[in-house]
Amino acid sequence: MFRRIFQKLRQVMYRMGLIKGIREATDLRDIPIDEDHYRRVDMWNSLYRGYYEKWHKINYHTLSGPKTRQMDRLDMPKVVAHEMASLIFNERCIINIDGSISDKIHEVLKRNHFYKQFQRYLEYAFALGGMAMKVYADHQGVKISYVTADCFIPISYSNNEIREAVFLNEIVKGDKYYTLLEWHTWEGNTYVIKNELYESEQKGELGINVSLSTLYPNLEEEVRIDGLSRPLFVYIKPNTANNFDMHSPLGISIYANALGTLKAIDVAFDSFNREFRLGKKRIIVPATAVRTVIDRDTGTHHRYFDANDEVFQAFDFMDDNSQKIYDNSVEIRVEEHAKAIQTLLDILAMQVGFSAGTFTFDSQGVKTATEVVSENSKTFRTKNSHEMIVEEGIKELITSIVEVAALYGFFYASEDYEVNIDFDDSIAEDRDSNADYYLKLTNGGLISKKTAMMRVLDFTEEQAEEELRRIAEENRTATAEAIDFFGMGGTERERQEQRDEDQGDDA
User: Fold this and answer.
1) Closest CA to 233 of 242, 241, 243, 225
2) CA angle, 487 as apex, 481 and 490 as ends, to 5°?
3) Distance CA 211, CA 111 (A)
């Protein structure tokens, strides 16, 4: 069934380590991606892991011959992806579900450790350009699994929504290499999931098709499902336009357009560290003062060298000062390197969507600014932009959870429900400054208290009205209590009697 799909996937699979043994098939679908995208994913992945050979492997020559070394790196791709993911989705984020199935859905999320897992895979999504979440069921209930961008291949999409896809999972068992292909397709209104397992004796080959029972005895070859409103997977990507392929539904890494800066940062940091290695203090001594050893095979004398004695340098002096010892100290350009690295970090912050000054470089390495930011900052605007995609993805995930739960009889949505995501901007915005700003506007009569409350506390209009009602009620209660406590109520006779009692107590 999948011959022509595989034909188009051949080059993509080559980049993913799947080279030979493509199965014949008959179905045809347009694949909206090309091999170049997965080349870029490979590069983004290598940078995220901390080593990209084309950048970080340095070849150089010495008197003893050619050598190689790894460039010292700041690993900023990891830092950038982590900071953006934790800024958007963290432990303070709350998923609010209005409806009778709220507890059931939260139970599913809790059982799948959603809050912890989602933040981790959201970091991978920012690094690699996207991720997918699959919803399925087993005997325990509804399950959620995650797929990184390098193992997700779209088959078809509509209105920028990916409707069909292939998921790849590579397994090594003993001396065999296995590749599981999981196809999610539509046949009319029927959702079809097909599973295929391939076995190879060599890495880099797809091999031959084998029985699923080889590794997955309980996995069915084909599952057909009716009544679904959407696919059983959700694709999430950074809210950054794909300027490499404007027709692709796939996302790009948040640092995809900052590669030159990332390389420059690593070059500067490597130079910074080499400044200490090459500029260490050395003592210049005459060659006669250096010990020698005798080669037992040839009888020749060789100058003694201990790798731990790098401070010694021997020279043959040709003048009267041949026996003097010189102290040679090199000025290390710490400040110049630190300024250069900091400038590059500010450029990187701008390119990936953070405010200038987010990343700072000091003697202990790179630090991320922990201070809050205003609503007008670039960090805050970028955060809100990505939140739109994340919120939509979580809502689609919950829809799939409800449909799978109903399909297998775990629970049913007997009524409409509404999902709202509270991302808790308290870690990203200066609430004191914002509160002062809106308080000034309120006192000046420029905006209402309700509007200020909606802006500062992120309330809905109904929540703001309810809170204002409560405040008014508390004020009325407090006023009545104050009247009684301070003797501000009652008749003149009652107040005189109270004064007489107070005088009697004083006497």
Assistant:
1) 225
2) 95
3) 31
Reported pTM: 0.73
3-class DSSP state for residue 119? helix
**Which pLDDT value is given to residue 481?**
55
Residues contacting residue 494 through CB under 8 Å, at least 6 positions apart = none
459 by Cβ neighbours in 10 Å (0-12 / 13-18 / 19+) ranks as middle
Q: Distance between CA 29 and CA 485 in Å, rounded? A: 80
Sequence-ordered strand ranges (E) for 189-300: 190-200, 208-210, 222-226, 233-236, 282-286, 292-294
- Mean pLDDT of the 334-362 span: 88
Of the pLDDT bands very low, low, confident and very high (cuts 50, 70, 90), residue 257 is: very high
Q: What are the counts of helices (DSSP H) followed by strands (DSSP E) for the chain?
A: 13, 20
Give the whole-angstrom CA distance, residue 13 versus residue 294.
59
Which helix or strand (DSSP H or E) is residue 177 part of? strand 176-187
Tokens of 362: 């000091």
Strands 301-303 and 312-315: unpaired
How confident is the model over 414-460, as pLDDT tens digits?
Answer: 778 889 888 876 555 556 666 777 788 888 888 888 888 887 777 88
Q: Give me the chain's average pLDDT, please.
A: 79
pLDDT of 279-296, one tens digit each?
566 666 665 555 566 666
**Cα angle: 378, vertex 383, 388; to 5 degrees:** 130
Q: Out of 21-35, 177-191, 276-290, 357-371, which region has the weakest mean confidence (pLDDT)?
A: 21-35
CA distance linking residue 88 with residue 94, whole number of Å: 12
Q: Are 465 and 450 in contact (CB under 8 A)?
A: yes
Q: Angle between the 102-111 and 114-128 helix axes, to the nearest 10 degrees?
A: 70
DSSP 280: S
453: three-class secondary structure by DSSP:
helix
Nearest Cα neighbor of 255 from 392, 119, 382 is 382
Neighbouring-strand partners of residue 421: 95
